[in-house]
Amino acid sequence: MSNIQCKGYELSLLECKHERFQHPDCNHEQDVGVYCGGKKSHSNHNSVRKPV
Predict the structure, then answer these.
(1) Which of 11, 21, 23, 50 minimizes the number of CB atoms within 10 Å of its CB?
(2) Element (H, E) at 22
(3) Beta strands in the chain (DSSP E)
(4) Is the dihedral of CA 12, 6, 36, 41 positive or negative?
(5) β-bridge mates for residue 19, sequence order
(6) pLDDT tens-digit readout, 4-50
(7) How far is it, in rounded angstroms, from Cα 40 to Cα 10?
(8) Which residues form the SRCR domain (predicted)?
(9) Burial class (CB in 10 A: 0-12, 13-18, 19+), 8
């Protein structure tokens, strides 16, 4: 992958805009690391209010 452009809401790097894996032209000077952090939102989709 190269030229990866993420917005911040993606669940996977593969969801980010990027150039495909066709002809890798990278070397070890272009290695990167990724840190994902922050609050994770949990919602309960089963609790739906019904009209009375």
Answers:
(1) 50
(2) none
(3) 2-5, 17-19
(4) negative
(5) 2
(6) 888 988 888 889 998 876 666 677 787 778 776 776 665 554 545 55
(7) 13
(8) 1-37
(9) exposed
